[in-house]
Amino acid sequence: MRIGDFSVSAIGLGCMPFSLTMTKIVPPREQSIATVHAALDAGITLLDTANVYAPTWDTIGHNEEIVAEALRTYTGPADVGVVMVATKGGSARGEGETWGRNASLDGLRAACEKSLAILGMPSIDLYQLHRHDPKMTYFEQAQSLAALRDAGLIRRAGLSNCTLAELNLALEVLGGPTDGGIVSVQNEFSPRYRNDVDVLDRCTELGIVFLPWSPLGGAVQAQEVGSRYAEFAQVAEEVSASAQEVVLAWLRGLSPVMLPIPGASRPATIASIVRSLSISLTAEQQARLTATVPESVSMFPDNGPRSALR
Ligand SMILES: NC(=O)c1ccc[n+]([C@@H]2O[C@H](COP(=O)([O-])OP(=O)(O)OC[C@H]3O[C@@H](n4cnc5c(N)ncnc54)[C@H](OP(=O)(O)O)[C@@H]3O)[C@@H](O)[C@H]2O)c1
C-alpha cells in the first residue's frame, strides 16, 4: 500500500499501548520493544506513534523513544530502511496532567524538532497534525504544517481528527498526495464509531490513506468485539478467525485507502493482526458487517470547540 510516494504494509502497528493506557499501567519496556520486533519480523512496516503518548506529562516522547530503540536494536531479517514512522504533533500536555493544543508555527516546530531528536532522523517520514487547536484557524494550522514541510523537517504531512471541511481546507493549503501535500488522515473508526464516512469517501476519491484509530474500539473494548457485535462473532465463525481479525479484514474491505493501525502491547497479538490479512470476506459478509449499527460514542467525546476554518 502507498502512503504518498512511500510503500508500506497493508496493516500498521499502533504503538500507543506502550505508553498511554486507561489503567495508567504501561507494559515493561522490553515487552514493547519485543512487540515492535515481532511486527517487523511479520512484515509490518508502518509504526504509528505521537509525542504525547507517554505515561505522564513530564515523560513526553516516551513512545517515540521506544520506537527509536526498537528500530536501533532490531537484528531480524526485515530491512528497517523500509519502515515508515508516523508521528504526531499539535497536542500538548502540561504540569498537573492538563491536556491542550499547540499548532502555532513555533509550537509545532519545537514539537517536531524534539521528535526528530528522539527518533534520530533527519526528517520525519509522516507528520500528522494530531488535533485542531481552537486558538487558531484551521487555515493557520495547515500553514504551520506546510512550513515544516517546506523547511524539510517532515517528508510527508497528514491530518488527524479532522472534519471534511478541515480536510478540504488543508488540501487547498498543502495540496494532495500527488503534489507532496496531505497523504493521510487518521480519524477514529471502528465497529462502534463510524461518524466520518464523508472524510473516508473524500480520502478514497483522492488516494489519501485513511488510518482508522482504535480500530477495535480501544484497548478495553477490543476484547469484547465479538460479544458486543454478534455479526462479527458470526462471521468469525464462518471464516474460522477471531472477531478482532474479522474487524480488521472488514475495515480493509471498506475502501482501498483503508490501512488499520491496531494497537498491540504483546508480541503474541502481532500474529493475529497479520492473520487478518489473509481473510477474504464475501461481498455478502462485508455488507452484513457494515449493516451493524454503530454506537457512535467516541473514545474521546470531549474534543473541545472546533477551530474556525479561516
Ligand atoms: N490520532 C488519535 O487521536 C489517536 C487516538 C487513539 C489511538 N490512536 C492510534 O491508534 C492506535 C490503535 O488504537 P488503540 O490502541 O487505542 O486501540 P485498538 O487498536 O482498537 O485496540 C488495541 C488493543 O487491541 C488488542 N488487539 C489488537 N489486535 C488484536 C487482535 N488481533 N486480537 C485480539 N486483540 C487485539 C491489543 O491487545 P494487547 O495490548 O494485549 O496486545 C490492544 O490492547 C493507537 O495505538 C494509536 O497509534 C490515535
TrEMBL record:
Keywords: Oxidoreductase
GO CC term (a single one): cytoplasm
Annotated source species: freshwater metagenome
Residue ranges of every copy of the NADP-dependent oxidoreductase domain listed in the record: 11-291
Keyword Ligase among record annotations: no
Keyword Oxidoreductase belongs to the record: yes
Protein name: Unannotated protein
GO MF annotations, alphabetized: oxidoreductase activity
